[in-house]
Amino acid sequence: MTLRQLRKLLIGMTITALIITACTGAETSPTPTEVSIEAIYTVAAATVFAQQTGTANAQPRQTITPTSTITATGTITPTPAPTRAVFVPVIPAATLALVITTTGTPGTLVPSATATFGGVGCNNSAFIQDVTIPNNTKLNPGESFTKTWRIKNTGSGACTWNTNYKFTFIGGSLFGSDTTKIRKTIPPGATMDFSLNMVAPTVPGTYTSNWRLASDDGTLFGSGFNVVIIIPGATATPTSASAATATATTAAAATQTMDVPATQTALAATQAAIAATQTSAAATQAAAAATASQAAADASATAAAAPPASQ
Fold it and tell me: Which residue range forms the structural domain that includes residue 199?
């Protein structure tokens, strides 16, 4: 209802009220009832609201009818969690039995003083005797000494040792000395005494120093020469006379006995550690499989609970 219509309605109601009052005023004198303008507005507003509500209810309502149906066309397949490959080395449970036979003092090389390595060309030599410090001489720690060997030139007549031939260190303990020129001329068949100044070690034990002659071009030849000394204070096995005849090529055979029980214990501990690693790997694989299964179950549940997508 418009404002104009509302005004007309109010005017009509006012006129009607005046007419009724005029017609009944002569007979009785009722107490006039005061009607406020607010009450008139309230009645008019209620009338307008009733008219609008009736009009709205009278209008037909539109019914929405779906025109198509959404149908799922695919299946959601969960992707399993990746499985981590664990490399586990497999070592057969074997028993390690390592036995090394010891001859002589551990850590000591004892080549022969009379060993013959053989001549090279016309050059050859032979050990005659120890002039000083025979093998297994006991010395004080740090003691200085001079070792002298008697050597013979056993080569052919064409090879005279000149002053550039060298007495050459080939292994063992150096004792503070070094390769040295012989500084002599020794014809075939002649002998010479060759000396080196040395210093004994300060740690107790048995020590060996190994030497050989070399020509002026550096080629080693002839027999080997050594010196074996003992520094008291340690458990040492003196080198016997028969051991002193061993060849320098077999000197490296002076080895020490290894602790076989300790080695076997270490192997057992290693095998136990490997077994623990294998168990851990199996547990990891089982956990990965369980994770993959749970992921598949969660994906299936999610796919089943998801509502169809609207178009």
Answer: 125-256
